[in-house]
Please model this.
Amino acid sequence: MIDQDSIPSRKWTSNWPVSNGVSAFARTTDDVADIYNQAGDDYVSYADGDPSQPFAFEGLHAYADRCVWTTLETKLADLRVAGANSVRLLDAGCGPGTWLRRLVLRARALGFSSITARGFDIAQAQIERARLTAGNLSSLPGVNLQFDVADLIDRLPESDASVDLTLCLYSALSHLPVAGLKDISTEIARVTSGHFIATVRPVGSTPTGFVDSVENVRRLKQDHVRDRCEIDLSDGRRLAFGFHMFTAAELQSHFAGCFDIEDLQGLDLFHSRFAPDSRWNPERLPGDNSLADELEVLEKACAKRPEFMDHAAHLLLVARSRRTVATGLAPGPSLEPRP
Model:
């Protein structure tokens, strides 16, 4: 059994002042860690697919995953094209470490001679899985890969402007107290010299089971006033934890003070909504291939339209450190509705 009191961040959160609703989150932070600690090995497959095939991108989350990966891979390749031989990566809220492993593997393929990568998460069991799955990757020449138990609301150990690419994906930010996001964004900006890439759940997204498929959810209630989610699963588990859902404008506002916003868009407006249900639909439907092509066109046409973004499965934020901004670059996206 994991001793949650042994995690330094746990002791720190218990000292939050009773103001702005932060103390309520402190009571749920342990719940968040416990939920992901107890999720089991099936969580890795549910969240990221087969860990032995990190670039397969299959299943319900495939479209959003491919979009996120395209963004990450492009930023990594841009660094290499610009002449960088070394790269430093940080994954805040890394879970089982899949995304950081993908980046390290791709960085090696691109020819980086020195790769320093750190992932951290509040759930110790997920960090143990990340270390196990990483295997011998960290022992390869030029690779320094580590996974730590830590909390995003604590100060980061990285030095100023030391990270080329920082990521915080799939609900990690949503589990944090909204009142603390300004300080958290400032701290992320302090250590990031290149780009920060994040995804969150928007207010109009479809439901998720977090640690299991939504088909296994018996009861779900998201309290938007208290930022608290309650879930009853079919196996008898009852989950309750802090969770905040964002609007696109709100997400931008939390990070625009510290970064230049390079891109903000909705991911998966249509693909998951048109995905067949194996309990009801046949394996293949007539016209599936042409439908997929049409959905791709619709996604690209609507992904940055304000009236659609808040109804996507995820919001993708790509932010650029002001240390890297050169004159003449295009301004960030506008969230003004189109005529």
The two ends are 57 Å apart (CA to CA). Residues 62-81 form the longest helix (20 residues).
